[in-house]
């Protein structure tokens, strides 16, 4: 009877079930009048965890050198004439996950009086961003950016582009 109890416990563990077996279930009751508390049964040491068949494969790993890629959020943006254009505060992606534009906190002083505008990702140049103090260059003038409408979340956005080649997003059918 003991072997059958361990086999049932092992099968339940492999199936992912939680089973509590007391020794009272395995052995006939004792002839004493004292009631014993059930003793939890430990699984055998030879039980090997089983990985479900639908487990995800290990992820791929890519190593990018410290000088080959940098984050852009919070980065200063400057014009080609070295004018302060603001700071990147968000990145806009389409439904497929392709980067379409950057949201720049433009104007104001120390965040007061500033407004958010959206610029085409292709209007940004990342040539010299070796460290966190380096800025990103925007191929627009300060006057062009100042004339852009303000970006407000959850409303249609106007994306300011240097080349005018930005294609609109497809409407949901």
What features would you highlight for this structure?
single chain; 173 residues; alpha/beta; SH3 type barrels; 7-stranded mixed sheet; 7 strands; 13% helix; disordered N terminus
Helix content: 10-25%
**Superfamily (CATH H level) name of the largest domain:** PRC-barrel domain
In the CATH scheme, what's the topology name of the largest domain? SH3 type barrels
**CA(first)-CA(last) distance:** 65 Å
Overall pLDDT, averaged? 74
- State the domain count: 2
Biggest sheet strand order reads 5-6-1-2-3-4-7
Task: Detail the poorly predicted runs.
Answer: 1-26
Q: What's the shape? A: elongated
Structural class: alpha/beta
What is the CATH C-level name of the largest domain? Mainly Beta
What is the tally of helical segments? Answer: 3
Question: Which strand-content bin applies to the residues?
Answer: 15-25%
Radius of gyration of CA atoms, rounded to a whole number? 32 Å
Supply the CATH architecture of the largest domain: Roll
Major sheet characteristics: 7 strands, mixed
Instruction: Spell the H/E element sequence.
Output: HHEEEEEEHE
What can you tell me about this protein's structure?
The chain has 2 domains: about 1-60, no CATH class; about 75-160, SH3 type barrels (Roll), CATH 2.30.30. It contains 3 helices and 7 strands. With about 170 residues, it is of the alpha/beta class. The protein has helices spanning about 1-15, 25, 140-145, and strands at about 75-80, 85-95, 100-105, 115-120, 125, 135-140, 160. It is elongated, with a radius of gyration of 32 Å. Residues about 1-25 have low confidence and may be disordered. It has a 7-stranded mixed beta sheet.
């Amino acid at each position: 009877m003991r072997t059958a109890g361990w086999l049932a416990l092992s099968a339940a563990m492999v199936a992912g079930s939680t089973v509590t077996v007391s020794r009272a279930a395995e052995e006939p009751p004792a002839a004493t009048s004292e009631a014993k508390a059930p003793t939890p049964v430990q699984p055998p040491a030879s039980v090997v965890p089983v990985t479900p068949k639908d487990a995800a494969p290990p992820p791929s790993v890519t190593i990018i050198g410290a000088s080959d890629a940098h984050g852009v959020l919070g980065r200063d943006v400057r014009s080609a004439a070295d004018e302060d254009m603001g700071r990147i505060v968000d990145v806009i992606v389409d439904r497929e996950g392709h980067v379409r534009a950057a949201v720049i906190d433009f104007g104001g002083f120390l965040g007061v009086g500033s407004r958010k505008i959206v610029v085409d990702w292709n209007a940004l140049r990342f040539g010299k961003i070796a460290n966190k103090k380096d800025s990103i260059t925007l191929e627009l003038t300060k006057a062009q950016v100042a004339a852009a409408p303000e970006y407000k979340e959850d409303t249609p956005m106007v994306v300011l582009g240097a080349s005018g080649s930005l294609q609109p997003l497809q409407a949901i059918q």
